[in-house]
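Regression test case RT-17, inverse folding.

Input:
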């Protein structure tokens, strides 16, 4: 445990009183003050997942004298705004969040953090061995360059309502062996105003999440030997059919506009008996004040492996305050701050947080999250144009579920659009 100084005790106690947390070390004790008086410009997403992270920034400001100017933008605008900032040469942000599926595009514009502790004396140790190896590799490394450090860990889980399964004579403790079993259960669970599955079939990120999960589970490999995408191969066609013909048939009406929030609400209220949910939503579902299913659901990694979500944080290679920016990133991702952030509901990517006895007692799903992160994981389609192609996935899957296209047409159009886009 880090030594608790008077300054660290003051900032830690203040934040603990505000959040109702134990007075753990703040991670800000002994940070250097040589950058006092300067301002860092930070780019964050306007998502509740980062509310706690931003609040904890006050401890960093108090300890270092650095002012944090935080800009929060809608997730739908994040990619475009950041890409415009770095390619136009504006470089308005010193520090920014990066979704790992964008890392190949942004790597040239971000600093290498591998030597951060040497570059900024007094910065908290990076402790890179405290991350599951695949997490660090997928979230932040590009061709050996450490362009970002994991800031938010996330895994897609399959959830099911134990009470609803038991009422239908289904073993509530057993995880479905595959996606076909999810549907078999779902058909038994659909009726009397309830539905077997909560499918997000809108032109939204959660729609392409489901396509990705199915494509991977059905043996898809994304690319052929010649580098061409294979989105309409046997796995792609099966995934499109499965969404449109199987999952859609056991999902609530109105789901053709659904994204993350609608899935969370449908499962939390007991309207849908099964759903895919990110680990970041589990703290909400585990709170009886927020979810009717709290204490009444089980979870398991999805069939075929666990899809990684999550976010890394990095430093603009042309940051106006490069050393202070590195200090902030080292502090934010330090073991002490990750523990405090986790206690506030932010899903940590660090092993030390996921296995901490106090946090496990607070979040009983942490052992499953830890096991998933160190187990078989995979990511989104690994290509520079991943964001644009994933939007195409959602558009075509939505059309198939809405029955404005057959699954065969949707899979074919997805392939054609992706190939055409990659030629640009």
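Golden output:
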């Amino acid at each position: 445990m880090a030594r608790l100084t008077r300054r660290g005790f003051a900032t830690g106690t203040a934040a603990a009183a505000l959040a109702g947390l134990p007075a753990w070390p703040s991670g800000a004790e002994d940070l250097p003050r040589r950058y006092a008086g300067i301002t860092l410009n930070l780019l964050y997403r306007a998502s509740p997942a980062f509310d706690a992270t931003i609040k904890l920034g006050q401890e960093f400001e108090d300890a270092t004298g650095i002012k944090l100017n935080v800009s929060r933008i809608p997730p739908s605008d994040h990619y475009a705004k950041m890409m415009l900032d770095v390619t136009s040469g504006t470089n308005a942000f010193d520090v920014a969040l990066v979704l790992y599926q964008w890392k190949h595009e942004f790597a040239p514009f971000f600093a290498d953090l591998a030597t951060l502790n040497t570059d900024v004396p007094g910065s908290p140790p990076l402790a890179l061995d405290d991350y599951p190896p695949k997490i660090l590799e997928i979230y932040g490394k590009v061709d050996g360059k450490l362009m970002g450090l994991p800031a938010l860990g996330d895994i897609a889980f399959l959830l099911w309502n134990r009470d609803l399964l038991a009422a239908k004579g289904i073993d509530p403790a057993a995880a479905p062996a595959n996606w076909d079993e999810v549907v078999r259960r779902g058909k038994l669970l659909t009726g009397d105003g309830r539905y077997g599955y909560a499918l997000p079939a809108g032109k939204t990120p959660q729609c392409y999440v489901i396509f990705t999960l199915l494509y991977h589970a059905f043996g898809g490999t994304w690319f052929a030997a010649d580098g061409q995408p294979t989105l309409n191969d046997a796995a792609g066609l099966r995934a499109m059919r499965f969404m449109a013909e199987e999952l859609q048939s056991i999902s609530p009406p109105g789901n053709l506009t659904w994204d993350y929030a609608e899935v969370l609400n449908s499962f939390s209220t007991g309207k849908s008996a099964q759903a895919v949910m990110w680990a970041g939503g589990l703290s909400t579902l585990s709170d009886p004040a927020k979810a009717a299913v709290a204490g009444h659901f089980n979870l398991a990694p999805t069939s075929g492996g666990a899809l990684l979500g999550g976010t890394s944080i990095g430093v603009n290679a042309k940051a106006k305050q490069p050393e202070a920016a590195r200090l902030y990133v080292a502090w934010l991702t330090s073991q002490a701050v990750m523990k405090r952030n986790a206690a506030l509901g932010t899903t940590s990517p660090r092993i030390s947080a996921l296995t901490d006895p106090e946090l496990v007692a607070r979040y009983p799903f942490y052992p499953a999250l830890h096991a998933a992160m160190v187990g078989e994981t995979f990511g989104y389609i690994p290509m520079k144009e991943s964001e644009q192609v994933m939007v195409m996935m959602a558009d075509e899957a939505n059309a198939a579920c809405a029955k404005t296209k057959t699954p065969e047409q949707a899979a074919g159009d997805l392939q054609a659009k992706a190939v055409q886009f990659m030629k640009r």
